[in-house]
Amino acid sequence: MKNFLYLLLICAVFSCKQGTEQKTISETKASNLIQLFKASHSDYPNISVHRGGKGLLNYPENCLETIKYINDSIYAIYEVDVAQTKDGQLVLLHDKSIDRTTNGSGKVGDLTYAELKQFNLVDDFGNETEFKIPLFSEVLSWCEENNVVLTVDIKKTVSQETVINEIKKQAAEDVSIIITYNIDQAKTAYQLAPDLLLSVSARNDVEFDRLLKTEIPTDNMLAFTGTRLSGASLFKRLHDYNIVCMLGTLGNLDKRAEARGDDIYMEWKALGADVLATDRPFAAYKAINN
Question: How far is CA 129 from the centre of its chain?
Answer without folding.
Answer: 26
